[in-house]
Design a protein that fits this description.
- The protein is mainly α and 102 residues long.
- Helices cover 75% and strands 0% of the residues.
- It is built from 2 helices and no strands.
- The chain is rod-shaped and about 95 Å long.
- The mean pLDDT is 84.
């Protein structure tokens, strides 16, 4: 292989490396943009969840203890509703346990 051929091959390799580098830069920029959007979406979802929790607290009478009206009302409820009720009752129990019983 002549010096000219080696130089030409080397230049081609450098150009391929530059092309790959540019492609990686574009991919990185796109991934960064997607990550920033995901962070904004997460912040918006968290703010919405907090707002909905405040609304729920308002509908439930604020930060008071909750009770289940009738056990029969629990049957047929979706699992997500039952988990929410369980979570709320556990929170209420924690509040009750904080109070010193005289």
């Amino acid at each position: 292989m002549t010096a000219h051929a080696r130089l030409s091959s080397w230049e081609e390799s450098i150009q391929q490396a530059r092309t790959a580098c540019e492609a990686w830069k574009k991919e990185t920029a796109l991934a960064t943009k997607k990550m920033e959007q995901a962070i904004k979406d997460k912040e918006a979802a968290t703010a919405k969840a907090n707002q909905l929790q405040k609304e729920l607290d308002g509908l439930n009478g604020g930060p008071h203890l909750h009770v289940v009206g009738r056990v029969a009302d629990l049957k047929g409820q979706p699992t997500s509703i039952l988990k929410t009720i369980e979570w709320q009752l556990r929170k209420d129990l924690q509040e009750v346990e904080k109070v010193e019983i005289i």
